[in-house]
């Protein structure tokens, strides 16, 4: 009995020792005791282990001490020792410098992600945010405002504040807040306008993540509005043909001389809606008459262009209608349907050529489209002719059937008539 | 004519053709006010012949795989010479055949032609009716368009509700748990091989029985003729009645051709198994009355699942209908009135539910 | 007397009915058989199924030339390089769906809408297109150029 008791005691002690060693050992592996307390404190001091595990820095092996200093291996308040370099909450003015300490160091960053750029801080210093920051403005955006902190995610993570779909929202946190932006005297309607734009639609409804968002035109770290003369350059990154035609057009030099912002004059900057032929009209969406006078050469040219585009549009629609009728009658018109797509491409091309502001060039595209629709219209008519041919064939067959029926009727009468006559 | 005579003699010398066709030449058809109803059986048979011919023609171009079925039907409709005609006739004749089959059944019921000794003729006819409905259900899926796909989905889903054997039946029909290309293969095999074989056999049986027992007389006419034999009017089957039947068949051909040319059967859009069912999915008109009934039944009646009750009711009604001649009982007059009442109720119910089904939504 | 008089009329009537019936039956049977016989003849455009199409005949294309043809319900592009190789790709640009074309000056497939460029194998080389064009297999059978979907792999 005594031996057993002794053995039991030793066993418990051994177990306790193993557990302590394990616990101590695991602490040594994460070496981040800060989260033990800060995980259960109330905000703004709260940083939970779950939250921090999402952080890209934590995943790369950094700890709280990497930015805040202190000793992450010590338990309780010993961790926040001034001797170990503890800084407490980083003062806002120190944030860009703190981040740049690593992110501007090429040799250091190469150890973690050789492909990452290291010029973010120098770019920031050229931005409106950076310039105001240098003057002491602490309201402007610093690194953590856009990237987050403690659960900072890479831009490819869909939950990141700087994921393509989320960027506009992140900028709008300040730029759509009228009260916050009051001292700066710039509009705060950009976000609202962008949300109705065709670029926003391309990203959200069309799923095209390469569609423009705030940073596409303004830059991200070096964020600033493109100058009046640079608007054409920015837009031309995607809208190559419109820019090429615009360059050769009459409007380029005129706008430049007048200090007008190129593309923005007709298309606006943030609220870029899908352009329709109404832009060439005289209604609320019309842009030409904002400068030109009614009755002058340009007004007449405008009318000509609008008439040409409308003609092609109508021609495409009427061919489509005829083909639909033929199809619903059971006729085969898939070849013509395919050609209609090419006609639609011609119309798109004609609308791009508007930016040359040369009616004869636009006419060329319209003519090409009209040739195609004429052929498709003919195909539709041929299909309907075939349908009528079938009906005529049916008519002929019905005549033969009726002939047979009449013949049968009289034959039966004959058959039965002769027998009755015989009886009589 | 000489050639024909020679051929007939040649066959007769070897097969006793004249003796074989003797009963047919003696067969007579009674003439009375209700004689026109006698045509319905022949028209249904003719339409079946049309279906076999157009079906075989379609078989030459149709491809029974989920990948190609729709495109092959499109090819038939648009590229094959007169493919549009063959396909539209096949679709229209199918509907007409089901209609005439139903009319034939109801006319036999109301003219009381199911009575002794013709009970088995009725039973074989009812089985033929079910086979014809099976043709309709299996054939409908073959173009593999959206309507067909979802109608089949709903139809086989309802089959799955039958107690005990329902799920097995569903898996057997669908060739799996869901409606897929496997279902198409199965339905194709059933439509072009299984059902035609069974139908051919049953038609032979049905015709042999009709031939054996001759044309039945409606009870009123029978009584009148018994009283006064001089008013009996009959015509020979060959050639008099047959010629009239040929007239009816020619009219049917004309109607089919007109329908095919003026109201071609639509192609629809290719089925997308992962797409959403379009709004207003419903079966073809001949299943509409059952479908509408199931929709109207409340989900629970006295703790029993409503749909189950509906299916059970239709199953029971079907069984009763097949066994109708045996239920008349000894008191012929009372039994007859009961059955006529049931017939009127069934006809009105089917017509009303079908119309309701189309008007609703 | 009456019976004798009506005989020639009866015969004439009989002849007329015979002609009507015989002619009607013959004509209607022909009008049923004619479509059936035409139906049996294979149509000029063969049904090779969804995955194969005769795009052109040998000799239709000049070296460094191209042709847009229909593959299924979408356009496809067949091109012949100066070295004599045939290539076939889908002609639907992967950016916004415009129909691409072969640029014989660039020796590349190009989309006029937003200046997207693809290689001859459909790889997206520059511009907005996010994905390559679907590549098709080209075979030559007698003097026909057959384009089919890639098999296996």
How would you state the average pLDDT of chain C, rounded? 85
Helicity of chain B, as a percent range: over 70%
Q: Which structural class best describes the helix and strand composition of chain C?
A: alpha+beta
| Radius of gyration of chain C, in angstroms, nearest whole number | 30 Å
Low-confidence stretches of chain C: none
Shape of chain B: globular
| Spatial arrangement of strands, main beta sheet of chain B | 1-2
Secondary structural class of chain B? mainly alpha
In CATH terms, the superfamily of chain B is Cytochrome Bc1 Complex, Chain C
Determine the mean pLDDT of chain B: 89
Q: State the separation between the terminal residues of chain C, measured CA to CA.
A: 95 Å
User: Number of helix segments of chain C?
Assistant: 1
Q: What does the largest sheet of chain C look like? A: 6 strands, antiparallel
Helix content of chain C: 25-40%
**Span from first to last CA of chain B?**
61 Å
Question: What oligomeric state do these chains adopt?
Answer: heterotrimer
How many domains of chain B, as an integer? 1
Q: How would you portray this structure in words?
A:
Chain A is mostly helical and 424 residues long. In chain A, 60% of the residues lie in helices and 0% in strands. In chain A, helix 8 packs across helix 9, helix 20 runs antiparallel to helix 21 and helix 20 packs parallel to helix 22. The C terminus of chain A is likely disordered. Chain B contains 16 helices and 4 strands. In chain B, strands 1-2 form a two-stranded antiparallel sheet. Chain B has a two-stranded antiparallel ribbon with strand order 3-4. Chain B has a single domain, classed as Cytochrome Bc1 Complex, Chain C, CATH 1.20.810.10. Chain C is α+β, with helices and mostly antiparallel strands and 153 residues long. In chain C, a hairpin with a 5-residue loop joins strand 3 and strand 4. The interface between A and C is medium-sized, with 28 and 25 residues.
